Amino acid sequence: MSCCNTIDTYFGAKHADRDLKRYLKNGPDRTTALLIEAVREAGLERATLLDIGAGIGVLQHELFPHDISSAVHVDASPAYIEVAKAECRRRDQEARATFVTGDITEVAGTLEIADIVLLDRVVCCYPNYDDLIRKSISRCRRVYAISYPRDRMLSRVAFWLDNLKRVFRRQVFRVFVHPVADVESRIAATGFERVSVRQTLIWRVAAFRRV
Ligand SMILES: C[S@@+](CC[C@H](N)C(=O)[O-])C[C@H]1O[C@@H](n2cnc3c(N)ncnc32)[C@H](O)[C@@H]1O
Description:
This protein is an alpha/beta fold. It has a single domain (4-151, 177-210), classed as Vaccinia Virus protein VP39 (Rossmann fold, 3-Layer(aba) Sandwich). It has nine helices and seven strands, in the order αααβαβαβαβαβααββ. The protein has helices spanning 7-10, 13-26, 30-42, 58-63, 78-90, 104-107, 129-137, 153-168, 180-188, and strands spanning 47-52, 68-75, 97-101, 114-120, 140-149, 192-199, 203-210. A seven-stranded mixed sheet has the order 3-2-1-4-5-7-6, with helices on both faces. β1 (47-52), α4 (58-63) and β2 form a beta-alpha-beta unit. S-adenosylmethionine binds next to β2 and α6. S-adenosylmethionine (SAM) is lined by residues 7, 11, 32, 52-55, 58, 74-77, 80, 103-105, 120-122, 125-126, 132.
């Protein structure tokens, strides 16, 4: 599969192994911890989860014990899917998880609707955020939450430096800071209202509930 913005090749085995080691040593990254807080605040129990751009699967590893009954893990990177599956097996959670390799904008129509849909640091990988949002939210029954960069100078500079590093490394992959007001108005236009916002210096975590 050839994925938009070379996502499937950029997020390879080396990245996935590094992310797993960091998670096992330090626990969830900050945006992931904030998304988990937002999901718990929404108060759904034994819900179904669709984690899009799920990486090594930290959200499901953390939410499985109490908050969710089953999870569908979608990622464009086959390497990340392999690492996530192995970790899921190690935790004895395999029977409740389904793994789908593919670009969500291409596979969304094949997925069951889930109570909770999460995108942790995925919107910034994708140039066409409108398509990404429309297709991912079409799979959501109740709670939709995303982490993505804040639309401010500090984030723009950080992401610009990140992209500059990739220019020197001759990598094609780029990250994007999208306009927050437009992203969230597109989510609202599909019948969701924002119920919480959490922010770090660079990132914004916004949760929405179907009206
Ligand atoms: C920066 S990583 C974040 C991984 C994980 N959500 C986390 O926060 O630890 C972005 C992930 O999203 C995946 N991804 C990006 N765009 C995608 C798309 N359109 N469809 C499916 N997966 C996508 C990438 O392969 C990668 O695993």
